[in-house]
Inverse folding.
């Protein structure tokens, strides 16, 4: 391929969109440094890259073929979507070969019709519109065709302005712009809005408390008619902003279902019946706005008799986030009920200094394999933040791209995925960046064994060192759901600290060696560096805390430990500043204080401990 190569389109039926050849032209420009011209009717002997509408792929609408010969590259598909995915594969080839493309034949199509990513923007961290658009562009490169945002209060409702008051929010114009951007990149933007549980953001206000099922004000009550007036108001503003015909009403984790207000109703029709009643009422509202309903499947699985009564046009989202989650068992239930469903694994990034990489990969692999075996309609990889939302997007890309690969081809090898990711996501052909992520992604494992908690590193970093305790979830603390962990440092073994330090230091060394080779997504590279340094700080902080609480220190030991405390305070202040910088580069400012408050609590504990040591009053 050289400057004399031309681009051509053969499409008598007009199925290939006008934008599609431009995607190819841009990909060639970025990877090979060529600005190729379009040519009508290429002749024998011309060097040409041609897009050909080929009816042979009608049975696989997203399928395509790529044939590379000496003077001609042919990309064939029967749909615009298929051609777009052919271009993405060709882009990946160019990233590895440059202008000298070897001869080859590829014929390819996806294992799942629907391959989605579900991104949490409701726990305080709401990205800027430009960041969400860039996320869509990147996901489209890996053939993701659905995108959804988890929203509780991150949208401005004119009819109910107190929903999300004081929080960062997207506007109607933001969502419409993102919808158009998704469409341009062959992606469906599926609306999602909590409509049953997780309603603290609404029910905390006095004028809405009558809608609550119970005194903890967590779930809406199906026994309260006014619930459906409020939901109708919200749907009327929200749903018409999306071109998608689908809508995810969520409906997960209704922990106080039928506990108080609808208890009498449950005695008549059962708790499952109460749940179904609400689902059917919401389905009717969604249909009013031309949407077919989707819902999380965790609650309905508890009531098999109710599952059989669920309308067949509802799509269930079968989620489970453990490495050993029984997708086979739950998939069989949905399959037997005749319902369409997705398998929904996760990146394992929430409540963690860095994602629990192997847990997430095993979860994704199991979901994909089981979903393919049992006929799932799609694979939806979820990327949660929880509260406070401390994890940056760069942390999740490894497992998001892994899920995209598994959603396209469940037989893809996991063994060398890190090298492929490093090469395609970062442009690092050495594979060092992928190896670094794998090391950092294992730092949770020794602490998981010590504390028996998936969120162990989150506890260790953000715990109050003076009291040696932490509250996991500030958002739900007032509702009685938060977990208080005590004696945290005392449960951690020294060998666990040394293992994590070795892995984090190895990660930093590899990232440093790859710095000049990172050609793409440098923002994610910076975020991963931040997490590696956080891990090293966390280990030093816990070692300091352990020694302080063990007591019996000599005067010399107290002075030495006080010096360590002063160093940790300086490092923590630097982390706080860096966190603010990284946050504000991509996210709206509001709600950053939820996280900064955690930093302040750690700082207060360290400062008091250091003062006690300096004055000789330490343990």
């Amino acid at each position: 391929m050289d400057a004399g190569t031309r681009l051509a389109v053969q499409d008598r039926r007009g199925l290939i969109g006008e934008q599609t050849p431009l995607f190819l032209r841009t990909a060639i420009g970025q990877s090979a440094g060529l600005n190729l011209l379009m040519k009508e009717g290429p002749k024998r002997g011309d060097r040409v890259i041609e897009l050909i509408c080929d009816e042979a792929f009608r049975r696989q609408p997203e399928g395509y073929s790529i044939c590379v010969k000496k003077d001609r590259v042919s990309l064939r598909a029967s749909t615009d979507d298929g051609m777009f995915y052919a271009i993405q594969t060709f882009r990946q080839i160019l990233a590895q070969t440059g202008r000298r493309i070897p001869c080859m034949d590829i014929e390819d199509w996806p294992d799942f019709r629907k391959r989605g990513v579900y991104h949490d923007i409701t726990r305080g961290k709401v990205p800027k519109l430009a960041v969400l658009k860039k996320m869509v562009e990147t996901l489209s490169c890996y053939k993701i065709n659905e995108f959804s945002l988890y929203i509780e209060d991150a949208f401005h409702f004119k009819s109910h302005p107190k929903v999300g008051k004081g929080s960062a929010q997207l506007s109607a114009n933001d969502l419409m712009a993102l919808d158009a951007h998704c469409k341009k990149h062959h992606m469906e933007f599926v609306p999602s809005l909590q409509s049953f549980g997780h309603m603290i953001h609404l029910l905390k206000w006095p004028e809405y408390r009558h809608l609550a099922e119970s005194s903890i004000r967590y779930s809406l009550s199906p026994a309260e008619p006014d619930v459906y007036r409020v939901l109708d108001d919200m749907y009327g503003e929200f749903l018409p902003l999306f071109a998608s015909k689908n809508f995810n009403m969520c409906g997960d984790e209704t922990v106080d279902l039928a506990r108080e207000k609808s208890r009498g109703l449950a005695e008549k029709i059962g708790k499952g019946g109460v749940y179904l009643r609400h689902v059917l009422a919401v389905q009717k509202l969604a249909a009013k706005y031309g949407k077919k309903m989707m819902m999380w499947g965790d609650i309905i699985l508890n009531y098999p008799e109710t599952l059989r009564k669920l309308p067949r046009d509802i799509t269930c989202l079968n989620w489970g986030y453990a490495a050993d989650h029984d997708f086979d068992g739950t998939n069989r239930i949905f399959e037997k009920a005749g319902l369409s469903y997705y398998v929904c694994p996760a990146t394992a990034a929430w409540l963690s200094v860095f994602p629990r990489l192997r847990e997430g990969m095993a979860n994704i692999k199991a979901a994909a394999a089981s979903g393919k075996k049992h006929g799932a309609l799609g694979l939806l990889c979820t990327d949660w933040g929880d509260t406070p939302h401390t994890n940056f997007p760069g942390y999740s890309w490894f497992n998001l791209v892994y899920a995209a690969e598994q959603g396209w081809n469940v037989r893809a090898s996991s063994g060398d995925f890190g090298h492929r990711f490093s090469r395609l996501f970062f442009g690092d052909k050495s594979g060092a960046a992928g190896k670094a992520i794998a090391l950092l992604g294992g730092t949770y494992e020794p602490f998981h064994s010590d504390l028996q908690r998936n969120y162990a590193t989150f506890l260790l970093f953000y715990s109050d060192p003076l009291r040696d305790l932490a509250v996991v979830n500030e958002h739900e603390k007032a509702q009685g759901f938060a977990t208080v962990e005590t004696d945290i440092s005392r449960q951690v073994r020294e060998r666990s600290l040394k293992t994590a330090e070795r892995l984090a230091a190895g990660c930093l060394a590899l990232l440093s060696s790859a710095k000049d080779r990172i050609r793409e997504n440098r923002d994610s590279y910076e975020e991963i560096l931040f997490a590696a340094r956080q891990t090293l700080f966390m280990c030093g902080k816990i070692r300091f805390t352990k020694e302080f609480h063990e007591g019996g220190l000599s005067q010399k030991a107290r002075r030495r430990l006080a010096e360590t405390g002063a160093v940790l305070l300086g490092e923590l202040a630097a982390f706080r500043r860096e966190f603010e910088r990284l946050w504000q580069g991509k996210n709206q400012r509001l709600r950053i204080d939820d996280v900064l408050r955690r930093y302040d609590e750690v700082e207060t504990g360290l400062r008091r401990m250091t003062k006690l040591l300096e004055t000789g009053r330490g343990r």
About this structure: The mean pLDDT is 94. Residues 133 and 181 are 7 Å apart (CA to CA).
